[in-house]
Amino acid sequence: MESIKIKSTNKSKESKSIQNKSKESKSIQNKSKESKSKESKSKESKSKESKSIKNKSKSKQNKSKQNKSKQDKSKQNKKYIFQIGFNRCATQALTTAFEKLNIKSAHAGIKISLYCPTYYLSILMYNNLKKNFKNPKNFNKIIKGPLEKYTAFLDMEYVYEDYSLTFYTFFKELETQNIGSSFIMNIRSCISWLLSRIKLGKQSLRPYFHNIHDQKLKDWVDHYFTHSINVRDYFIRNPTIKARSKLYLLPLEHKTIPQLLKEMNITNKNIPNEKVDFIKNLSLTNQEKELPKSIVDYVHSMIEKHGDPSHPDWWV
Fold this sequence. Notes:
Layout: H1 2-77, E1 81-83, H2 91-100, E2 105-107, E3 109-111, E4 118-120, H3 121-130, E5 152-154, E6 157-160, E7 163-166, H4 171-177, E8 182-187, H5 190-203, H6 214-235, H7 239-244, E9 246-251, H8 257-263, H9 284-289, H10 293-306
Parallel strand pairs: 1-5, 1-8, 2-5, 8-9
Antiparallel strand pairs: 3-4, 6-7
Helix pairs in contact: 6-10
């Protein structure tokens, strides 16, 4: 009997041990499930966080793309002002007037950075354009890079020794790439213009304005009339161009800079007229006395042949 009791108690103990082990096993299983649940929840939360980060990143990228797109559109829609008349015809006075009206202007050259030399507008623009110069239908964009921050471009001419790069004569390319922009044809009488250039030559260190002989003066006269005729034919006598881009005249003997600015609807303010070198202390007869007779006769022959571009009626 005792033996049976012992066996029974042993079995009972074994049963309890098994139950305890079962409980422990269940506890381990539960803990395992809890840890797995926690891990899955952690993964889910991490996944959600990563998705949230990705979504935020995509949102930022989309906003960045939208901003870039807006900037590109604003650049495309930007309207510029190009002075396409001659130097020694109030280019500096025009620049000063624009700057007073907070119109960022580039005159002759620009500094890309504080320690860089001045880059001439003509050279920058020509280099931007000429990469596809052999194929006129695929001209590269002229206004790009450091030029994009400017609105008005004046005195686009580079002269050195006997060489002159007059980029304002590329007005067709400028207009085609910047439709709707404004173009200013600043001009003065041919005799007055020649005298002003000669005067500059006496003050300038640039060799181009030194050693001014009769042939050089005749070349200047030819350029004066040829360029004026080309501008008139393109902007005034071409209905398509006349409808899409505006040419403003600044004949200095007949119109002031403030009058021009009001005509362009740039300002209603009274901008004081900048001092302009007209050689106006000299009458036309006295101006002509300052030049060789052969040059004066040549100018008169060109006026008889083509008319006088310095007069507003010539541009009708």
